[in-house]
TrEMBL record:
Protein name: HAT C-terminal dimerisation domain-containing protein
HAT C-terminal dimerisation domain boundaries: 84-166
GO terms of molecular function: protein dimerization activity
Superkingdom to which the source organism belongs: Eukaryota
Length: 192
């Protein structure tokens, strides 16, 4: 939220929209977790996130470690979890930004303070950006966005890439697209 406030101003519609989206997603994840387990205060450790132990006399070196040291380790009520996180005093030194620490480790260290937000962070920050589907999408985008198509609007590019992916995956064109699907099928060479 702080980035949106800096970029657009604290009273902007963008900040309100981002806050609304965060609250809606927070509620969705909270409901899902309540259905899966009755008590959300106990969060099982994620085996995919490694915890690196430091000697007790060593000060925090990375950005995430400094952020973890600045937050309080108190349990927050679930209703105020977002507000508590946004109001937390999270200070860090400018040169710590270049450290190769992952935000997942920070959320792991603070999952008791912010259990639902930590779950959301695991869901969103832990997604793989190099899966087969993503690679196919980038390949299709490269086919659509050639150098002579520099004036296309982002929405047009999105529609073209989606259409190309549907055609490559042989998704049947039904409903409002049935006539276009029949015309396209007539253009395809018949298999012999």
């Amino acid at each position: 939220m702080h980035i949106f406030e800096l970029a657009f101003g604290s009273d902007s519609s963008e900040v309100e929209q981002a806050t609304s989206l965060l609250n809606r997603e927070f509620g969705r994840v909270q409901e899902k977790l309540e259905l899966e387990q009755p008590s959300i205060n106990v969060v099982d450790p994620d085996p995919d996130v490694a915890i690196i132990d430091r000697p007790s006399n060593a000060g925090p070196q990375s950005l995430m470690a400094r952020l973890a040291m600045r937050t309080t380790q108190q349990q927050t009520p679930q209703e105020n979890e977002i507000e508590a996180f946004l109001k937390a005093d999270l200070n860090f030194k400018a040169k710590a930004i270049n450290d190769k620490a992952t935000p997942l480790k920070w959320w792991k260290a603070n999952q008791k303070s912010y259990p639902i937000l930590a779950t959301m962070a695991r869901l969103y920050l832990g997604s793989v950006g190099s899966s087969c589907a993503v690679e196919r999408l980038f390949s299709a985008a490269a086919d659509v966005c050639s150098s002579n198509r520099g004036r296309l609007l982002p929405s047009t590019i999105s529609h073209c890439v989606s259409s190309l992916m549907w055609l490559r995956e042989e998704v049947p064109l039904l409903g409002a697209f049935s006539e276009a699907g029949q015309a396209f099928a007539a253009l395809l060479p018949s298999e012999k």
